[in-house]
Amino acid sequence: MKNISLFILLLATLAACTTKKETTTEEAWIQLFNGKDLTGWTPKISGYEAGVNFNNTFRVEDGILKVSYSAYDSFRGEFGHLFYKDEFSHYRLRIEYRFAGARAPGAADWAFMNSGVMVHGQRVETMGVDQDFPVSLEAQFLGGTPERQRSTGNLCTPGMHVYLADTLNTVHCISAPTKTFMEGEWVTAEVIAYGDSLLHHVIEGDTVLTYTKPIIGGDFLPENYPQPAGTPVKGGTISLQSESAPIEFRKVELMVLKGK
Known about the structure:
With 260 residues, the chain is mainly beta. It has a single domain, classed as Jelly Rolls, CATH 2.60.120. Helix content is 10%, strand content 38%. It contains one helix and 17 strands. The protein has one helix at 2-26; strands at 29-31, 41-45, 58-61, 64-67, 80-84, 90-99, 114-121, 137-142, 154-156, 160-164, 167-169, 173-174, 187-194, 198-203, 206-216, 237-242, 247-256. The N and C termini lie far apart (44 Å).
């Protein structure tokens, strides 16, 4: 009887340990930004080869990843993206950002407090030297003022289309129903993706956009892109955007999710 009791206790202990391990694996956050430097990230700025961080646009200061235009005398279309080294398909991406200052001299009015994160994107080495935006899905970040109300967490689709409620959508940008966040206000944004079956944009814990089945096609698709229009996109790169508006990131983390 004593041996049976010990055997049952051993089984229960092993089961508890197994359960704990599975839970920990499922809920482990990967820190894509280490808080110290740009290890694991590659800049790609329009007009320059991948790896050239023109004018030190992307930098880390005081534990913050910054998009800065302090070294620019004028902005001449140097749209940029900072690519993480790995690709992902099923994940929960969480970012904390804030806008920090006036846009670069010479920047367009539409770029006022305008940035974002690109997901399901093409690889950095496949971008053309003069290509402004990677083929990707953008969770667009916008800031505003009391006089200029603007939503954030919107969707823009350079080189792609998505489905909304099972209907193909070909509009380049889709607005999310959020309040306006001001300069200097930290915002927590998430993208939750299950391959090409379901993607969510989440702002401050609220799901603000849901879409499915991203495919190649539409505006900003480079000529001779290797994947033809209509090709399903089930995953890809993650990149932080620089569009002439200074922005800061204090957290960029990701949880790999089990496929559905």
